[in-house]
Amino acid sequence: MSDLKREQRKNEHVEIAMAQQDQPVSDFDKIRFVHHSIPSIDVEDVDLATHFGDFKLSSPLYINAMTGGSEWTKQINEKLARVARETGLAMAVGSTHAALRNPDMAPSFQVVREVNPDGVIFSNVGADVPVDKAVESVRMLDAQALQLHVNAPQELVMPEGNRTFSTWIENVKAIVETVDVPVIIKEVGFGMSKETLKQLYEVGVRYVDVSGRGGTNFVDIENERRDLKDMSYLSNWGQSTVESLLESTGYQNSMNILASGGVRTPLDVVKSLALGARAVGMSRPFLNQVEEHGVDGAIEYVNAFHQHMKKIMTMLDARTVDALSHADKVLSPDLLTWIEQRDLKL
Ligand SMILES: Cc1cc2nc3c(=O)[nH]c(=O)nc-3n(C[C@H](O)[C@H](O)[C@H](O)COP(=O)(O)O)c2cc1C
Fold it and tell me: Which amino acids does the record list as binding Mg(2+) (predicted)?
């Protein structure tokens, strides 16, 4: 595939993703917090900082992987990086594969480090890249972590996608053993199962972003790019972010679990944290913010988001992210069925 075609694909992903609408009801609605009338803390007591593995972040919210690899997406990365710098959010770039193939593309990713020299930045590549390329991807951005995305459904619906996956797990193992920053194995909106988490744990993975169904949908995006648009029936493939977090309960003490996928409101973030996520990523909402409201609008959005999270945590009597594990919650019959059939412990 030519570099021009790759650039075009990147732009198509952004265009189609921006046009996607979220379902009016999400799995986050299937979990409710129990309201208690008399909080023992004030809003100003709440501290949003989170710590996990090698990371101490002032906010559990992060800008998840999206762009780079074309002129347009360079501009988006530049804007997102300014938002990250002004709000203290960690930020991931989209797959750096384009820059690993063609160094002329590197500036579309490196702009993120230039704009935000002291920020926490995650680089990103696919689980199939050779180990030396994974190392290069980290070096390119002086990144604090490397996200390795696993996206089999996307590849299979993508007309020009990958059809070989049998080498992934050995490759993940080799990358985790070689790269000298934390490696986060990340889904792209299809969620994870406890079986996947076990497989990853056994090859040394200690950081995972379960990125579940419910938001940006890469079956739909790639189906849109097919001539016949004939794979829409796979649209509901995968576990939601809530289901994935339930799947992760047996691994929350041994791995750092991050959540993303369809997280849209401060309440969704707080619910993810209460289900055991150590940090929570959003992608499309940040894309829409910077493209529709500019950098200043996006900064205001993040600041308001943080204030709302503090108010929700006050209602839950949770001074810290850690304290959210004690929040009283009630799950829908749907989720209970999932827990029962999947033999999960809460
Ligand atoms: C335009 C766009 C491009 C994306 N590109 C990547 C990518 O290169 N690598 C990756 O790991 N995830 C990529 N993702 C997936 C997101 O990181 C995330 O897992 C997914 O969008 C679900 O989150 P959301 O519902 O908040 O958008 C992309 C998402 C969008 C919207």
Answer: 155
